Amino acid sequence: MTPDLHARHRAVLPDWLALYYDRPIEITHGEGRHVWDAAGNKYLDFFGGILTTMTAHALPEVTKAVSEQAGRIIHTSTLYLNRQMVELAERVASLSGIPDARVFFTTSGTEANDTALLLATAYRRSNQILAMRNSYHGRSFSAVGITGNRSWSPTSLSPLQTLYVHGGVRSRGPYAQLTDAQFIEACVDDLRDILGQTRGVAALIAEPIQGVGGFTSPPDGLYAAFREVLQEHGILWIADEVQTGWGRTGDHLWGWQAHAQNGPPDILTFAKGIGNGMSIGGVVARAEVMNCLDSNSISTFGGSPVTMAAGLANLIYLLEHDLQGNARRVGGLLIERLRAVGATTECVREVRGRGLMIGIELVKPGTDEADPDAAARVIEAAREGGLLVGKGGGHNTSVLRIAPPLTLTVAEAEEGAAVLERALHSAC
Ligand code: PLP
Keywords on this record (predicted)? Predict the structure, then answer.
């Protein structure tokens, strides 16, 4: 990127608009798992945009679907019938696992979560929400308001009353030494304790694996155990699948399926990867919940035929090529390789994750103290080596986040791991 563009960026965009690298990169094009910057440098994209490039950059099937639809009409309104939207909704509904499902398309994960909160509070006639500590659900007033990681909240004002539950993170804190079964029991006790102090809670919202929170997974079955308690009170379970959806975790299409013993969530939200970079978000809920709103409403750009055409082509490719299976296989090899690398340096506290959603937590050598500066240095060094990786947000910037497109090959996984190995050794 030219310095000029960086200076112009600074002069006109908010200071708080996150921008990676001391000398930010201007990405001009991409193909497969690679992107190129304006200076012609090639990078292996281990962050998949920001978990948005689900299949591959410039996937011909998606590009063709977008350009063909854009050539016909870009957008009118969902006030008119829209074939692409109906077709994508049919597929999402049947894949969601939610019975009698209805789908509402939005333009972002934030808007999807706002809609889920609107539905839950309207259905339950309550503005009380349970959320997880260290969670992230988006940047609107209500999504920030319920987000457990308070970094984004300049005030504690929120239209919703939120109480925070243990369970999203277990590698630190009072529950760190517990077995899976003990951890689940302790979190369920915490949930029961909170519910004993409230009345009429609308919903619990949770990411099956916390994303911005540093790719922390609870033990399988935690949310099933929660759901049993929630059902005793008629409280809805909202699964925020914005990062975990569409096979990224390798074992399942959805993150909630690792917690499926007591049935699917009442509401599921998705975004990021479904459009392979086109702005699609959405909410799935059973008809009784979705239809509890009684005023007609639309999202002006939600369900736009161009984005829906992209989503359809992308989803078909993902399913036909079993990219969930690829995430499991290649992600499994990659995490093993990164664990071996982690064992050779004292600055890696933990390598964790599932499928192609892998976190590397960095600490000051010989201590348990999070080291965001080391993460920043490793990210810079990786970039010098031709590799893009992400990091956690808010209080979790000491965690490197790896989430490449799900078409990642074994050779590319090895190539990226080798760059990371060098970056960790040189920058820690
Ligand atoms: N929910 C989760 C779990 C997310 O990770 C994010 C974004 O990172 C959001 C919601 C908000 O999505 P968006 O940035 O598309 O509004």
Answer: Aminotransferase, Pyridoxal phosphate, Transferase
Strand residue runs (E) in 80-195? 101-106, 128-132, 161-165
- Reported as a single tens digit per residue, the pLDDT across 152-197 is 887 777 889 999 999 999 888 788 899 999 999 999 999 999 999 9
ipTM: 0.99
Q: Which helix (H) or strand (E) holds 274?
A: none
Question: Looking at ligand 1, which residue's alpha carbon is closest to its atom 1?
Answer: 137
DSSP annotation of 247: T
Give the binding-site residues of ligand 1, using a 6 Å CB cut-off: 108-110, 113, 136-138, 207, 211-212, 240, 242-243, 271, 281
Contact 283, 268 (CB under 8 A): yes
Q: State the average pLDDT over residues 22-29.
A: 96
d(CA 404, CA 388): 9
Dig out the tokens for 349 from the structure: 């506290």
The preferred substitution site among 50, 137, 141, 270 for testing ligand 1, maximizing ligand atoms within 8 Å of CB, is: 137
